[in-house]
Amino acid sequence: MAFSALALTAMTVRFYGIPQALNCLLFVFCSTLVGYNFVKYDALVRTKQNTWRVELKLILLLSFVASLVGLYSFFQFQLRTQLFIVIPFLLTLLYTLPFFPNRANARNWKGVKIYMVSFCWVLMTVFFPLVFGRINLNGSVFWLSIQRFILIFVLVLIFEIIDVTKDDPHLQTVPQMIGVNKTKILGYLLLSVLVLIDVLQPQIHWVALSFKLLVSVTIAFFLYYAKATKSRYYSSFWAEGIPIFWWLLFLVFS
């Protein structure tokens, strides 16, 4: 997960020619690692539903080290960048912790999870490096954020299909609401929109379009074969690795 966020952020940095972005990339990697572990293991730690196995201790140690590195990077940023970081930080807390009386955390709000996750990824992998690099927001940023939202949204659909029989029906995930087959069709349509955005630009960048097409086809492949009987590693390793694959292709051919 952290490497995927790093890859997408690195692509934004490269697209907009943001200089001296090492601290930016380091912070995205560390904050994603800490945030993911916080979301995944917070309930287990707070409710003591799990014994403190060696694996969990190592994960907590890794998260602690990543927190220190992330804090170091944070204090290197200018004030405007630090203030921006507050937004995804608060959203992560809202997603994980039950802030409101008699209400679960946002992760368990009906039909909200996929939109909040996609929005947070857009904030961190698109807008955060642009704020860091003092890049003016324009039409290209708008279309990039839409494409990035679609990309993450469809990747999360793969997770939701695999977990459709495990998730609480109250969550009302997309496959629970419209079924697995219609979810896949929705994913294909969104991927078509992702590519179409590049096609309809006044100036078509054929290399970028080729990458988008290849990545979209790859995601469509994983979406097609996604089903509830698939191993969790199908989504957590292979599907999450698609942004890394995209970034490596970009490095090789750009």
Structural features, described:
With 254 residues, the chain is mostly helical. The chain has eleven helices and no strands. The protein has helices spanning 2-15, 22-47, 54-74, 79-96, 113-132, 139-162, 174-178, 180-199, 206-225, 232-239, 242-253. The longest helix is centred in the first third of the chain and has 26 residues, at 22-47. The radius of gyration is 18 Å and the shape is globular. The model has no long low-confidence stretch (mean pLDDT 83).
C-alpha Rg (nearest Å): 18 Å
Number of separate strands? 0
Main sheet: strands, sense, barrel? none
Strand content: under 5%
Decide which structural class fits the backbone.
mainly alpha
What structural keywords apply?
254 residues; globular; mainly alpha; single chain
Summarize the structure.
74% of the residues lie in helices and 0% in strands. The chain has 254 residues and is mostly helical.
SSE topology sketch:
Layout: H1 2-15, H2 22-47, H3 54-74, H4 79-96, H5 113-132, H6 139-162, H7 174-178, H8 180-199, H9 206-225, H10 232-239, H11 242-253
Helix pairs in contact: 1-2, 1-5, 1-11, 2-3, 4-5, 5-6, 6-8, 6-9, 6-10, 8-9, 9-11
